[in-house]
Myo-inositol-1-phosphate synthase
Amino acid sequence: MAQKIKIGIVGVGNCASALIQGIYYYKNKQPEDAIGLMHWEIGGYKPFDIEIRAAFDIDARKVGKDVSEAIFSPPNCTTIFCPNIPLIGTKVQMGQILDGFSEHMKNYDAKYTFVLSDAPQLSQEEVVNILKENQVEVLLNYLPVGSEEATKFYADCALKAGCAFVNNIPVFIASNPKWASKFKNAGLPIIGDDIKSQVGATIVHRILVDLFKKRGVKLEKTYQLNTGGNTDFLNMLNRTRLASKKESKTEAVQAVTAKRLVDENIHVGPSDYVAWQKDNKIAFIRLEGKLFGDVPMNLELRLSVEDSPNSAGVAIDAIRCAKLALDRKQGGALVEPSAYFCKHPPIQFTDDQARKLVEDFINA
Ligand SMILES: NC(=O)c1ccc[n+]([C@@H]2O[C@H](COP(=O)([O-])OP(=O)(O)OC[C@H]3O[C@@H](n4cnc5c(N)ncnc54)[C@H](O)[C@@H]3O)[C@@H](O)[C@H]2O)c1
């Protein structure tokens, strides 16, 4: 039987729910009928060769529950595509709140927002011990956008416990040379920052910008407006938490333009919260440019996707690449997987280049 990858999860929200559902969903599939995966096998690991050994959250409706129950507890609202998950035997533990909880989240009905648990918060030493005792190999960060301090707290826990780190959120760790060198010195791999979705607004926007470049069309102005109704979008109503999210999403598009657009001609970001959309995200993308003879053209696109399974389709590969690097004793920021899987990697490539690099990394 294949060895299992032992993971820990920070933030048992919608993305964690989709990922864990997927681990069980693909157990009963054969490679030829498994839909929705970029890779059936990476380094000998199948999508279901992943075990959840530790989980941390701060919501009263999740802390203390088995992970298999916590993922279906409010305010999680993503699609349930794998309802019958057996007891996993891992209970969600109270983490450290730090800046994971934004004050404005108190102003909404409990079914839409986070409800703080009054369980005692774990110290860093306790979190590290839990990771060590459960032999966690890869720690995944799924905290809300704007959790700068909390992300650094858990990244430090990963370093102290000897875990690889997959940073799914736009707090700059893998792309921050200081943090990347801490992981390098510890001999631990890190993938980040800010996971791209399988077919999400970022990759579609980048591919269209790349198309303009390849076909000789001058891109003059572009926007990407996004709406959704999950806690990720609710949290992002506090605009002070958005600086790095905006930078990450905007740079992902700027990185593939023929010539950088001046700031006023590019607008990319989360735009509004629409409660009834739940985990459905809608992106409106517009590109304006000039083609042959300086003649103007524009392109409008509307993308509708379930946000969390869309990220899980990438996370399931990121986890396996992190484990592959652990097996190879490769520490530091993993340039190739980060470039293909994340919006704000240490080094940006076009998606075609990044895909090739990641295949080379897997097959090395
Ligand atoms: N397609 C996508 O869904 C996608 C893409 C890129 C990035 N992301 C990012 O991934 C992150 C997770 O997204 P989500 O939709 O699962 O969000 P979510 O709001 O559903 O989940 C966040 C979870 O973190 C918990 N939490 C808050 N503070 C905490 C703390 N200090 N310690 C432990 N847990 C804490 C919350 O209680 C909640 O369960 C977000 O930052 C999001 O922007 C998502």
